[in-house]
Amino acid sequence: MGSSGQTVLQYVPSPASVSAKVHPLVIFNICDCYVRRPDQAERVIGTLLGSVLPDGTVDIRNSYAVPHNESSDQVALDIDYHQNMLTSHQKVNPKEAIVGWFSTGGVIGGSALIHEFYSREVNNPIHLTVDTEFRTGNASIKAFVSVGLSLGDQQLAAQFQEIPLDLRMVEAEQIGFDVLKPTIVDKLPNDLEGMEATMERLLALIDDVYKYVDDVVEGRIAPDNKIGRFLSDTVAALPKLSPNAFDKLVNDSLQDQLLLLYLSSITRTQLSLAEKLNTAAQIL
Amino acid sequence: MANTATRSFLQVAVTEEATPPLRVVQIEGLVILKIIKHCKEFSPALVTGQLLGLDVGSVLEVTNCFPFPIREEDEEVEAEGANYQLEMMRCLREVNVDNNTVGWYQSTMFGSFQTVELIETFMNYQENIRRCVCIIYDPSRANQGVLALKALKLSDTFMELYRTNNFKGEKLREKNLSFVDIFEEIPIKVSNSALISAFMTELEADIPVTQCDYDRLHLSTSPILERNVEFLIECMDDLSMEQQKFQFYYRNLSRQEAQKQAWLQKRRAENVARKNAGEEPLPEEDPTNPIFKPIPEPSRLDSFLVTNQIANYCNQINGVAGQSFSRLYLMKALHEK
């Protein structure tokens, strides 16, 4: 009996921890495209652009929608449009390459075809689904890669397997984040207001810490050594300066700032003076 | 019998002419993110891009944007740039994005954006579009925790003056135009579709403290202030150069006047002599004499721009200094605890 005992349906384990990072711009773009889709389309399909980081994670940075035609059993993408947009985007940013595609709504039968099309463009594309209809009751964004199912030596089918997704935000975007969350914001916060908000947050944090310490001391909460150690490290991080030295430091900085303020006020006065002289002078 | 509630068609057509002044620029969150991303990726190089949207009454809505590729100084790239723009607009039209140009955005470094090129670009745009706006984003201030986004528009009086290219002192006095009147800053409103808000609230947990808070509380501001003051000094140099030009002009003008007077005296004396001798008096003016040539008055445009720039730097310094004060007092209070 030469045949092997049992053939087991096995799937090749996914390539070592591929995970994806998505910039919020991509989500915004997808939502915007969804809101603007033509009336008869139920979902939006498009291309994802980005790069692959050296440690294997895929960094998704940009996206654009591609018009498509959908009937009950077929999905057809406008490939010319896709190519045109790709060349246009690459003129601005040559480092961004195709890393996958997105669609709103869940994974459906037609997705496999589209996925195959994209795998011709790039190796192991990522498929991002954005659930804009909130079917599960909360917003879900999932990323999938295609994993091959094989029976012995034969490739049977491909399966979409979910990979971990990380929503990443760069600092500059985070500043704007408070501004971006609500539906409408009346004006952008300027420097001092931002400062105020930050200090309020810091105060809230300090209050929390106080409460925690009080609770532990009175025995209401079981003390956690790690937190305690962390707290003592933080408090010890305040540099040990004699009050005189500290006062001197602070006063010096204050004086520098005041000097600059004075300088800028003088400059402004000078400007208005020069202005008057320039336009008011007449030769009679 | 005319019903006072309904207006005749003619009346409506007539009142449509008055366009309400632009009061607010309403930007979508998507556009802000795109601008931030583009400017930050290419910083410190300066980049530009196009703004698309709709012009509705007194609100200018900006709903999308796309970046321009960086142009090398090449002849043939002009056509390429135009092609790129057309291509992008066409593609965006296909996905139902508003493709009316409503302006452009550009990044700047420490607020030094007020140049003649800006004004020229404005004039170019203004010829084709009725209302356009320029958004300036300063990526260097993002390190201080500030979203430095400004919407600018040229003021109408300034535009008229620029068209006639007439910057003499008289005209400016007439219109009562000072250097702050060149650019008008328009308040920005941010709007987002409900879908996006829903997504954002779900996905980002309310973290008590974010990275930008750390940046704001950072004590060392000296590099930023130093750069600002450096720029300020350079601008002052420019300003003093402009001032000298004016001084020179006025000195020349007064010298010319004196010469004219002297010549006139001589002519009059001659004429008296000739009258006595019974000859024709010579004309009192001599257009061929070089002292009668009017000296061109130097344009004040540059000095205006420079002054504007300086004012900007001063404002920035004030802002940063204000922040530092708060920080220093905070530190003091903490230390005493």
UniProtKB/TrEMBL annotation, chain A:
Keywords: Cytoplasm, Initiation factor, Protein biosynthesis. GO terms for biological process: formation of cytoplasmic translation initiation complex. Its main location: cytoplasm. GO terms for molecular function: metallopeptidase activity; translation initiation factor activity; translation initiation factor binding. Residues 20-150 form the MPN domain. GO terms for cellular component: eukaryotic 43S preinitiation complex; eukaryotic 48S preinitiation complex; eukaryotic translation initiation factor 3 complex, eIF3m. It is found in: Cytoplasm. SMART domains: JAB_MPN (SM00232). PANTHER family: EUKARYOTIC TRANSLATION INITIATION FACTOR 3 SUBUNIT F, EUKARYOTIC TRANSLATION INITIATION FACTOR 3 SUBUNIT F-RELATED. Component of the eukaryotic translation initiation factor 3 (eIF-3) complex, which is involved in protein synthesis of a specialized repertoire of mRNAs and, together with other initiation factors, stimulates binding of mRNA and methionyl-tRNAi to the 40S ribosome. The eIF-3 complex specifically targets and initiates translation of a subset of mRNAs involved in cell proliferation. HAMAP family: eIF3f. Belongs to the eIF-3 subunit F family. Component of the eukaryotic translation initiation factor 3 (eIF-3) complex. This is Eukaryotic translation initiation factor 3 subunit F.
